[in-house]
TrEMBL record:
The keyword Methyltransferase applies. Residues 85-182 form the Methyltransferase type domain. InterPro entries: Methyltransf_11, SAM-dependent_MTases_sf. Keywords: Methyltransferase, Transferase. It comes from the Bacteria. This is Methyltransferase domain-containing protein. It comes from Mycobacterium spongiae. GO terms for molecular function: S-adenosylmethionine-dependent methyltransferase activity. Residues 1-23 are annotated as: Disordered. One of its GO terms (biological process) is methylation.
Amino acid sequence: MTRSTNIPADSAAPASTHHPTAEQVEAARHDSKLAQVLYHDWEAESYDDKWSISYDQRCVDYARGRFDAIVPANVIRELPYDRALELGCGTGFFLLNLIQAGVARRGSVTDLSPGMVKVASRNGTSLGLDIDGRVADAEGIPYDDNTFDLVVGHAVLHHIPDVEQSLREVLRVLRPGGRFVFAGEPTTVGDGYARTLSTLTWRVVTNVTKLPGLRGWRRPQGELDESSRLAALEALVDLHTFTPQDLERMATDAGASEVQTASEEFTAAMLGWPMRTLECAVPTERLGWTWAKFAFTSWKTLGWGDANVWRHVVPKSWFYNVMITGVKPS
């Protein structure tokens, strides 16, 4: 098992208020599902801010773009689906924005973390969407056979110990002809270069900000120490990286048909992860709106080049994110 996080283990990320004890962290080293609950409960209230998640047009377009990039055009023309499920929902980013984008009419959100289900359900309510939430294990989804028309997930499969078993469960709860779409999964090659670049960035920034006159650009030591406990859990929850062929094989073995994969973010990931690491090392108020605009515009520009130039040159297994779709046979 390998980590898919790209921020070094000693990097700083803003902590939430649900801090596990040292004893809980130690127990989580021997229980990956406990680690998932502790880490994601800890992150739940601050997760949207940490990852710049929103439910406005920016993220609606992003979520819809991931869906459109992998789903066949003839399916897109027949939207919306009636009932959808998000597996490992986190704060609800993928499904809530897909519903707003017209992909589905109503949905259910599930996660192993009660804290995440609480936040996702609250987000759905605040948006006025038809959503229900359940705490659920992705290896044993608590819904009847043939319940959903669509199952989605974003950056969730790499957290699940038995991915193939989870995909079998996805197919079980889908109606015949129903589709699943999972996006944002880390590739093995992409994880390697992204982590290397992030580690290098972290070392440079943390050393430079020790210099006289630059110490105001460094997060307080107490915040760095506290976030190191979060990083210790983060190292335990990212269980896998994938090649596109890995995912295709697992989905096919689980019983899916019409399986397809696609990948994205090559140069965008090479810039994005160092920028994210810098944001973790430097106090938020030091960067401001100008930085945020530069970071987002740069990432989008490189993403355009990845989609329109590099995808014709570079093997898809070299891109950072891989997505997959498939259908439950009728």
